Amino acid sequence: MSRTPALLVMHADLAAALMRAAEKLYGPVDGLEVLSNEGLSREALEEAIETRVSSWTEGGLVLTDFWGGSCHVCGASAARRHAAGGPSAHGEIVIVTGINLPALIDYLHNRDQFGVVELAERLQRKGRESFRIQRGEAA
C-alpha cells in the first residue's frame, strides 16, 4: 500500500505550530504539507488547496481545524472539484476536521498502512478518544 497523503489546512499559524509539535514527538516529517488561510480570500484558499491536492493520484486527506470554518469549506470545495475529474483518476479526498496533536501523530504512524477512508475514520476515533476530563478530586 502506498502512503496516504495529507494537507494540514488551518487558521493563522496553527498548522505550522501543530506540525512543529508533531516533529518534537514523532521526529522529522516528510510528505505532509501545511497551509494557513491567513491573508487569503476564499477563492485564493480554494486555489491553494486545489494546487496542492492536484497531484494526488490515489486520494488523500485534507486535515482542518474545525467544521464550517473557511479551511473546512474550501477543502470540501477542492475535494468536490477533484472528484469531478473521476474517482478512478484521482482517488477520494476526505476532509477530517478537528485535528488535534494525538490524531496527527496517529496519522503519521499509520499513513502507510491504511487507505484514505479507513485512515480518516481512524483519525476521527483517535481525536474523540483524546478528549478526557480529569477533576482534581481525590479518588
Any overview of this molecule?
By secondary structure, the chain is α/β, with parallel strands linked by helices. The protein has six helices and four strands. It has a single domain (6-130), classed as Rossmann fold, CATH 3.40.50. It has helices at residues 14-26, 42-53, 70-84, 87-90, 101-110, 116-130, and strands at residues 6-10, 32-36, 60-64, 93-97. It is globular and about 60 Å long. The chain starts with 5 loop residues before the first strand and ends in a 9-residue tail after the last helix.
Topology:
Elements: E1 6-10, H1 14-26, E2 32-36, H2 42-53, E3 60-64, H3 70-84, H4 87-90, E4 93-97, H5 101-110, H6 116-130
Parallel strand pairs: 1-2, 1-3, 3-4
Keywords:
139 residues; alpha/beta; 4 strands; globular
Strand content: 5-15%
CATH topology, by name, is: Rossmann fold
Please tally the β strands and state the result. 4
SS class: alpha/beta
Low-pLDDT residue intervals, each spanning 5 or more residues: none
| Main sheet: strands, sense, barrel | 4 strands, parallel
Radius of gyration: 15 Å
N-to-C order of helices and strands: EHEHEHHEHH
Sheet with the most strands: spatial strand order: 2-1-3-4
Query: What is the general shape?
Result: globular
How many individual helices? Answer: 6
Helix content: 40-55%
| CATH homolog superfamily | Phosphotransferase system, mannose-type IIA component
CATH architecture: 3-Layer(aba) Sandwich
Estimate the mean pLDDT confidence.
93
From the N-terminal CA to the C-terminal CA, the straight-line distance is: 46 Å
| Total number of domains | 1
In CATH, what is the class?
A: Alpha Beta
